[in-house]
Design goal:
The protein is α+β, with helices and mostly antiparallel strands and 129 residues long. Helices cover 16% and strands 36% of the residues. It has two helices and ten strands. Strands 1, 2, 3, 4, 5, 6, 9 and 10 form an eight-stranded antiparallel sheet that branches. It has a two-stranded antiparallel ribbon with strand order 7-8. Helix 1 packs antiparallel against helix 2.
């Protein structure tokens, strides 16, 4: 398992404390955690709100969403980080506590929390189906 954050040295076999700290320091940038099989979870944004993506070991790419939006922003609101700007749906925004929980689950090889759902993206990061 390897944790990376924009502009920082990778952390091999990160602890929950290291994961939590790295995410709390993520500000208008990105962080990711990658398993030895190549699957990963990555976030963009910060400091308090993020978008979340996942790539499984088959190489399929997904964007996270949730049934109960946690922000009042309308669909199409832009999140900016590390030179990227992405228009998100209202249910694609996540709070740092949710992101931390998802990273912890991924690092421990556990199922993702029930509040997160995944929609598949194509090679251009457009929703499939």
């Amino acid at each position: 398992m390897q944790l990376e954050r924009s502009g920082c040295k990778p952390i091999h076999s990160p602890t929950e404390k290291q994961i939590s700290r790295a995410l709390s320091l993520t500000k208008s940038s990105f962080a990711s955690i990658t398993a030895s099989d190549g699957s990963y979870v990555q976030v963009g944004g910060g400091p308090g709100l993020f978008m979340l993506e996942y790539q499984n070991l088959q190489g399929k790419h997904f964007r996270a969403k949730q049934n109960s939006p946690v922000v009042p922003f309308p669909d199409g609101t832009i999140i900016s980080f590390t030179g990227n700007q992405i228009a998100l749906a209202q249910n694609e925004w996540f709070l740092i506590r949710q992101i931390t929980e998802i990273f912890f689950a991924f690092a421990a090889g556990q199922v993702f929390p029930s509040f997160v759902e995944w929609k598949e993206l194509d090679a251009n990061y457009i929703t499939v189906g």
